[in-house]
Amino acid sequence: MSIDLAAIGGSGLYQFPGLEHPERHSVETPFGPASGDIVCGDFHGRRIAFLARHGESHTLPPHRVNYRANLWALHHLGARRVIGVNAVGGIRDDMGPRVMVVPDQIVDYTHGRFTSFCDVEGAEVKHIDFSEPYTASLRAALLAAATRAGTPAIDGGCYGATQGPRLETRAEIIRMRRDGCDLVGMTGMPEAVLARELDIEYACLALVANFAAGCGDEEEISIEEIFAHLAAATASVPPILAELVS
Ligand code: HPA
C-alpha cells in the first residue's frame, strides 16, 4: 500500500478528522502491539495514515507507549514520511500556550525505553548518524505548510524529552534551559530515533500547551488549562497537513 504521509497524534489528537474511506489496520509487530489500530484514509486526494500515540482513549502514558511497534507498524503499511504531533511545555519566552514549533534538535532525558530496533538478539547493530534528528526537507515542508494554512510555526528549537508522566520540577526546567532546551515534552524520544533507524522521514509539530514549570506566571500548572490550550492548537493540525500533502 502506498501512503503519502502518516501522522502520530499526541495528547488531544486521538482521531484524524476529514479522513475519507477510512480503513482500520491492526498490525502485528515483532515488538508487540502498537498503540492501537492505524487508520488509513483519503485526505485531499492523498493517502494518509493516522495513529493515536496514547491510544484512542488516552490509556497509554508516555513511558508505556510501544514506540517500536508504532514505527514498525507504520513502516510495514508503507509510511515513509511521518509527522509526530506532540504536546509540549514552553521554556523559551516566545513559546507560550498555543504556539506551534517545528523543533530542530533534541536532548533525551528519558530512561528505560527501548530506543533501538537492534535491541533484540541477533539483530545487526547499527550506529546511525543523529546529528540532525529531524528530516530537514520535511521540516521545511511542514513550516511552509503551516504558513500557507495561516497558522505559522516557529522554525527551530530544542526539544527536551522527559520521562513523565509527571510534569517537571522548576529546578529540572532550569537545568533544561541551561542545557539549551526550548521545549519540554514526554514523547519525542525514542520516536524520532526509531524513525531514523527505519529510514522514515520524520518531523515534529510541537503544540505548546503550557509554560513549563517556573516559566510562566502560574504557581501551578493546571491540567484543565493544558487540555484547553491543546484543543485550540490541535484544530490547526488537519489544515496544516492538508497543505503539506497538497
Ligand atoms: N512538560 C512535559 N510535557 C508536557 C508539558 C510539560 O510542561 N506540557 C505538555 N506536555
Rough outline: globular
| Beta-strand residue percentage | 15-25%
Which parts are unreliable, with pLDDT below 50 for 5 consecutive residues or more? none
* Rg, alpha carbons: 17 Å
**Residues in helices, as a percent range:** 10-25%
- What small molecules does the structure contain? hypoxanthine
Number of helices: 6
Structural class, by secondary structure, is alpha/beta
EC number: 2.4.2.44
Catalytic activity: S-methyl-5'-thioinosine + phosphate = 5-(methylsulfanyl)-alpha-D-ribose 1-phosphate + hypoxanthine
GO biological process, one term: purine ribonucleoside salvage
GO cellular component, one term: cytosol
Summarize the helices and strands and which ones pair or pack:
Elements lengths: L4 E5 L10 E6 L12 E6 L2 E7 L14 H10 L4 E10 L9 E3 L2 E4 L27 H13 L5 E2 L2 E4 L8 H10 L3 E3 L5 H7 L3 E11 L11 H12 L2 H9 L1
Parallel strand pairs: 1-4, 1-5, 5-11, 6-8, 7-9, 9-10
Antiparallel strand pairs: 2-3, 3-4, 5-10, 6-11
Helix pairs in contact: 2-6
The structure holds hypoxanthine.
Hypoxanthine (HPA) binds next to strand 5, strand 10 and strand 11.
What characteristics describe this protein?
246 residues, alpha/beta, 6 helices, 25% helix, 25% strand, binds hypoxanthine
Task: Summarize the entry for a quick read.
With 246 residues, this protein is an alpha/beta fold. It has six helices and eleven strands. Residues 87-89, 162, 167-168, 184-186, 209-210, 212, 226 line the site of hypoxanthine.
What does this structure look like?
- By secondary structure, the chain is an alpha/beta fold.
- It is 25% helix and 25% strand.
- Strands 1, 2, 3, 4, 5, 6, 7, 8, 9, 10 and 11 form an 11-stranded mixed beta sheet that branches.
- Strand 9, helix 3 (170-179) and strand 10 form a beta-alpha-beta unit.
- The chain starts with a strand and ends with a helix.
- The model has no long low-confidence stretch (mean pLDDT 96).
- Bound molecules: hypoxanthine.
- Hypoxanthine binds at residues 87-89, 162, 167-168, 184-186, 209-210, 212, 226.
